[in-house]
Amino acid sequence: MAIEEVTRPAAVQPAAETRQITGRLAHLWSLLRWHPSLLAGVLLLVVILANAVFGPMLVETDPLETMPRLAREGPSDAYPFGNDSSGRDILSRVVHAIRLDLGVALVVAGVATLIGSTIGLITGYLGGFIDQLLMRFVDILMAFPGFLLALTVTAVLGNNIRTIVFALGIAYAPVMIRVVRAQVLSLREAQFIEASQAIGTPTWEIIFYHLLPNTYSVLLAQATLFLAWAVLDIAGLSFLGLGIKPPTPELGAMTAEGAEQMISGRWWMSVFPGGFIMLMALTFTLIGDGLRDILDPRYQR
Amino acid sequence: MNDHNATLRVEDLSISLHTRGQNVNIVDRISFIVPEGKVVGLVGESGSGKSMTALAIMQLLPKSASLAGGCIALNGDDLTRYREHDMQKVRGRDIALIFQSSKTALNPLMTVGSQIARVYRRRFGHSRREAWASAVDMLDRVGISRAQQRAKHFPHQFSGGMAQRVMIALAVACKAKLLIADEPTTGLDVTTEAQILDLLEELRRAEGSSLLLITHNLGLAAAHCDYIAVMHAGHIVEFGPVREVFHNPTHPYTQGLLSSVARPDRALLHGTTLTGRAPDPLSLPRVGCRFIHRCPARMPQCAQPVPLATVGPEHTSYCHLYEDMV
Lengths: 301, 326
Description:
The structure holds 2 protein chains of 2 kinds.
Chain A: H1 2-33, H2 36-58, H3 90-126, H4 128-143, H5 146-157, H6 161-188, H7 191-198, H8 203-239, H9 251-262, H10 268-295
Chain B: E1 6-19, E2 22-35, E3 39-44, H1 50-58, E4 65-74, E5 77-78, H2 84-93, E6 95-98, H3 112-124, H4 128-141, H5 147-150, H6 160-172, E7 178-182, H7 190-207, E8 210-215, H8 218-224, E9 227-232, E10 235-241, H9 242-247, H10 252-259, E11 308-312, E12 315-318
Parallel strand pairs in B: 3-8, 3-9, 6-7, 7-8
Antiparallel strand pairs in B: 1-2, 1-4, 4-5, 9-10, 10-12, 11-12
Helix pairs in contact in B: 3-4, 4-6, 6-7
């Protein structure tokens, strides 16, 4: 008898949980169906992620291996994207470059989001003199175009991946500070914040337990847009020779290298890497805009 | 009034509001006590300073307002001298505030169970599991059926009355000695209103807390309070045991307020109800009675500083009519 009573609820629970999960999936699907651009973005993301994760395993050629005999050869069966001026396999280089660019972009967006949201949350909630001082500093940073700022920083500090992350992180963080701070300023007056103060909730708990989750919507949309910007800016810096240096496979640097050959009709050397820069930026822009539409408070289903 | 067993003792409290370049005392030298284990009602029209008084006790006044004098003694300790850091410990441990609109007073993104569980974790150092169990228990105590499941629900899945029960659970979970309920039943059905107040009363008795009940509803105050403080334009015009005040109202404002209550056995007599509206806080007289322009018993000396007269046992009135009883 006792055993039966114990087992019965356990048997009911998985069924309820499965229902909950299918319910959530159905909800997700309905959201995507009504936002075709978001759906397109998500599909592209799946392709790019799969490429970044599995691509290097599938392409056997070493991206750094030079084959002088094949230099500047056009697309062929063996090398579908053709070969560059040193005879390296462009397909292999593009596949590895997507992984690198995506990785660096993720780190840049992550750093900018983490720094920006923490500062925005804390100073936005506490306010006061430090908040004012910091916001003026942010104004100064935002007066520079982000790319120009990153360009200056990398030019001064030398170009390696760490500098790029640092430079772009500084360039983007002010945007996140503003976005999160604006959300916090309106939330600070919300009654549930006052009510939680009234039962003695400590400040850190209000910030991280009550405020932070309520900024997730804007935070997520902005972080995705950071990814789009980061892909473009990393490639842009490398294109100008201030980012990742050849021979490391990087989309911007490859495009720059190929651009020199464009005039002689060797389009494959810049079009393939350039096309993937565009595709990645498009992916994150579509997702970012889609998320912003869905998570916007004015959006009601 | 016996001083020794007052949970809360407010003395000469003034709150100043800064608007359009001027400072106005929207609450002006009010004094009252909340005796231990008793319910005190703070009644008055909207804008009379009731909610401001509650926020001042919590030291949670908005930026535009500030404390302009007086003392707020909780069990003998003056809260006005506390720094924000210490005040944060007092809130929730010694005083808990129940807000008027419960649905906006709960975090929309957290389940109600986890919001209550936070209180247990913080206040009593419960483990995650213990805190959750206590939260479910508390929800059950405030009369939410299937508390086990309901604890996992979000605030928007609750009706107004149910959300108010959650709000009460949140405040009572603190086990504070003093509860302040700011219009806890505004916007609820009369039946729900009665249930909520009965619940609050029951829990309050069980925990042995005192309650400061802020309401504009006189019937409610009459039914649930031991003492009553009548507020008008930032003054407490009358304070006393609830029966005394209702059966023998001394201040013309209290008399007007009571005769404004519709009752089937009595027609509203023209001339006995209150005329005009609560005065504009910006044009309040600096000294003297603030009821002067609406008062049927106006006298020349009303513009002079008003004496606090003792008109009965524990019963005080803030009016020139009782000057000889000071």
